[in-house]
Amino acid sequence: MSLTAIPVPITAVFAALFALMLVALSMRVARMRIRKRVSLGDGGDKELGAAIRIQGNFIEYVPMALALMAVLEWAGARSWAIYAFGALLLTARVSHALGLYARVFPARVFGITTTWALLVGGALAVLVTVA
Fold first, then answer.
1. 21 lies in which domain range?
2. Which residue among 9, 20, 38, 122 is buried most deeply as judged by most CB within 10 Å?
3. Cβ partners under 8 Å of residue 54, min gap 6
């Protein structure tokens, strides 16, 4: 099967990129768990707790954004708009994660506010499309 057989090929590419990012975030948590000898929860360790939350935050927001992106692409939104949505979401999620890891507050704020804006904009675009 090729990407041309997939009804939402642009979203599929971004979903793959986000899957790789999730694996990277998850590996960081796993390595930290091994190093700190904590198999469940965060063991009261702030660094591990933060890594778990960064991974969790990613999991909480990315699937819904990808779902909206896929619906818009499937509904016939312009390719450039889908690419822009995906690129901005990727930039936002990388910025958010790096902002949390490096404790750079502006990067974290950019990441979450951009994610929220994409969710609201995507939701409104879907509602307008189906109305």
1. 3-130
2. 122
3. 25, 96, 97, 100, 101
Coil/strand/helix, residue 38 = coil
Q: Give the chain's domain count.
A: 1
**Tokens standing for residue 31:** 């390595």
Give CA–CA dist 31/47, Å, rounded.
12
Token code pair at residue 116: 């929220």
> Per-residue b/e over 59-92, b at no fewer than 16 CB within 10 Å?
eebbeebbebbbbbbeeebeeeebeebbebbeeb
pTM for the whole structure: 0.89
What pLDDT is attached to residue 102?
A: 87
Q: What is the mean pLDDT of each run of 10 residues along the chain (131 residues)?
A: 79 97 96 91 90 94 98 95 98 94 90 97 94 80
* pLDDT at res. 66: 98
Give one DSSP letter per residue of 80-115, joined into a string: HHHHHHHHHHHHHHHHHHHHHHTT-HHHHHHHHHHH
